[in-house]
Amino acid sequence: MISVMAVVLCLLTLCTRPILAQDTAAAPTDAIAPPSKLIAKDHDNDAGTAIDLEWTLSPDDQPQRKPRVVVGYQVFRSLADGMERVSLESLTPGTVKFTDRSCKYGAAYLYEVVAVGSGNRDSEPARLAQPVRAVRQWFDASRVWFGVIVLIVCGCVIGFTEIVKAGRGTHVRAIAGLKAIEEAAGRATEMGRPCLFVPGLRDMNEISTVAGINVLSHVARIAAEYDATIEVPTCRSLVMTAARETVQAAYIAAGRPEAFNDDRISYITDEQFAYVAWMTGYMVREKPAACFYMGTFFAESLILAETGNSIGAIQIAGTSQAAQLPFFVAACDYTLIGEELFAASAYLSGEPQQLGSLKGQDAGKALAAALLIAGCLLATETSLLPKTTQFAQALDYLTNSILR
Amino acid sequence: MLKSTFPWLIVAVTGCVMIAAFFVPPLAEWKNEAGAWFEILAAMAFVVGGANLFAQHLKKISARRAGWGYSAVTLFSFVVTLVVGLFKVGVIGEDPNYPWAGHYQAEGSALWWLYQFAYQPLIGTMFALLAFYVASAAFRAFRAKNTEATMLLTAAFIVLLGRTYAGTWLTSAVPDDYSALTFPGMTAIILGVFNTAGQRAIMIGIALGVAATSLKVLLGVDRSYLGSDGD
C-alpha cells in the first residue's frame, strides 16, 4: 500500500514540475522594452510655446498580445539641467506622437518617454540627447493663402467704394424684401398697429446682429416718417442699448425726436424659449401689422414666423443661419437670402461708399467662382487621368493649402 | 462727436487686434484679452437689462395695463429666482463650517429645483410646439401651385420617404447596380448634391457679406448701429 502511494506521489511530482516551471516563466518580472528614437522639434506656426515629440513604439507594444504588455506611455519633461521634472501626459498604447503645449518661451527642455506595463512596471525611458527650445514664429505660414484671399476681397471692397465715391455710379439689383419695408410701415400706420423688429438671439459681437441693427436704423426712420410705432424686444442687454441709440438717432434724423419712446425697446430675457414665449404672446395680443426678423435665429425662427403668419402680419426676414432660411421662406412674405442681409444697410442707405462695398462683394464672388471652377476641373482631370500626378498634386495644393 | 466716434475707435482697434491675432501667433493672447473685455461689458449690461426688465414690468403693473397679471408673475419669478440663487437657498456645502461654499446649482438646492421642475418643463413645452408649426408650414409650402412648388413637393416627398423604412421596402426589388434609383439612393443624391450645392452657395455669399460688413464697421463707413453723433 505504501509503495503504491509512493508511486502516485512520484507521478504527481513529475506532472506538477513542468507546470510550476511554466508559471514562473510567465510571471511579470521581465523588463519591458523601452520606446526608441525619441525626437523633438519646434511646433510650427505658434508663439514659441509648443514642442512636438515623436518616437518609435516599444517592441512589446503589440495589440495582438493578450493581455497587453504595454498599457500606455508616460511623457516626462525637465529643464535642460534636469531640474523641475514633471509628468506631462499619460497616453494610450500605440501612440507615437505628442505635442507639449505648456512650454515657456525661451526655456530649454529635455523629454523622456516611458512605456508603462501592467502592474506598474515601467520600461527604461527613451531620452532626448540634446535639450530642445520652442521657437516663436511671427507669422502663421499656414494662413498665408487665407490672408491673400482676405486682402483681395477687402482690397476690392475698398477699391470699389472709392470708385463709387468718386462719382461713378453702380447698379444694384432690386431686393424685393427691402422695397417692401416702406409698404409694411405704411400698412402699420393705416391699421394703427405697431411694427415688430426682432434683432435675433445673439449679442453685439456677432456681425449678423450688427447687420440687423443697421437695418433697424432704416426701418425705424421709415416708421418715424410714417408715424408708425416700432417695438424692439431684445434678448441681450447690449443689443437693447445699441438698438435704443440707433432708433433714437433714426427718429432725430426723421425730424421727430419727440416721438421716440425708449420703453418700446426693451430687454426680455437671455433664454431662447422664454424670449419666444414673450414674443408669441405679444404677437397674439397686440397683432403687429409688420414683423421684421433680422439677425441670428435658431429653432425659434419657425415659431415666430408661423405666429406672425397666423395674425396676418407682413413679414420680412433675413438671417445668416442657412439652416433657418427654409423656415423663413415657408412662413414669411419676403426673405433676405445669404448676403442680402448684409447688403440691406447699403441698399437702404443709398450712400455711394456703402454701395461700393456691394460691388467689392461681387468681386469676391467672382474669385470664389473661379476657385470652384478650377477645383472642379482639377478633380475631373484627376479622376479621368489617374496616372497623371500633376493634376492630383494641383488638386491637393488647392484643397489643402489654398482653401484649408 | 464722442458719442459715436469714440465707440467706433474702440471697435476699430479691437477689430484690428483680432485680425492681427489671427495671423501673428504671439498676439493670440490679445484675442483672449479682447474676449474677456467683452464678457465684462456684457456682465455690466446684464445689470442694465435686469433693471430695465424690473422697471418695464413695474410700470405695467402700476398702470394696470392689459396683461399686468403676467408682469406680476414675471416679477415674482424674477425676484424668487434671484434671491434663491444669490443666497444659495438649500445649498449644503461639503464642509459644515462653510455651508455657503457649495455650488449654487448643487442638486437638491432651491435653484436646482426651480430649474428642474419649473424652468425645464416650460422650455420643453415651448420647444414641443415646434412640431405643430413645422406641420403647418410644410402644409403651406408643399402645395403644388406652380412648377417650382411641384418640384419642391416632389423632392420633399422623396426625401421624407427615403428616410423611412417604407421607402427602403418599396424599392427593395431594385438591383444593387441601380441603387441610385431607390428612395434612399435618391434621397442621398438630393441631399448630397443639389442641397449641398445650394447651401454652399449661400454660405459663400454669407461669408463675403460678413467680410464686407466687418470691413465697413472697422473703417467706420457704416455707423448706423452706434446711433447719432449728437451728444
Question: If you had to describe this structure to a student in words, what would you say it looks like?
Answer:
The complex is a heterodimer of chains A (404) and B (231). Among the domains of chain A are: 36-133, Immunoglobulin-like (Sandwich), CATH 2.60.40; 171-350, Rossmann fold. A six-stranded parallel sheet of chain A has the order 11-10-9-12-13-14, with helices on both faces. In chain A, strands 3, 4, 6, 7 and 8 form a five-stranded antiparallel sheet that branches. In chain A, strands 1-2-5 form a three-stranded antiparallel sheet, with no helix packed on it. Chain A is α/β, with parallel strands linked by helices. The longest helix of chain A has 33 residues, at 352-384. Chain A has helices spanning 2-26, 144-165, 176-191, 207-226, 237-253, 272-286, 300-310, 325-331, 340-349, 352-384, 389-402, and strands at 36-42, 51-56, 70-79, 86-91, 97-100, 108-117, 126-127, 132-133, 195-198, 230-234, 265-267, 290-295, 314-319, 334-336. In chain A, helix 10 packs antiparallel against helix 11 (389-402). Chain A is built from eleven helices and 14 strands. In chain A, strand 12 (290-295), helix 7 and strand 13 form a beta-alpha-beta unit. By secondary structure, chain B is mainly alpha-helical. Chain B folds into three domains: 1-80; 87-130, no CATH class; 142-231, no CATH class. Chain B is 72% helix and 0% strand. Chain B has helices spanning 2-23, 28-62, 68-86, 110-141, 147-162, 165-170, 183-219. In chain B, helix 1 (2-23) runs antiparallel to helix 2 (28-62) and helix 5 packs across helix 7. The model of chain B has no long low-confidence stretch (mean pLDDT 90). The chains are: A alpha/beta (404), B mainly alpha (231). Chains A and B meet through helix 2, helix 4, helix 5, helix 6 and helix 7 of A and helix 1, helix 2, helix 4 and helix 7 of B.
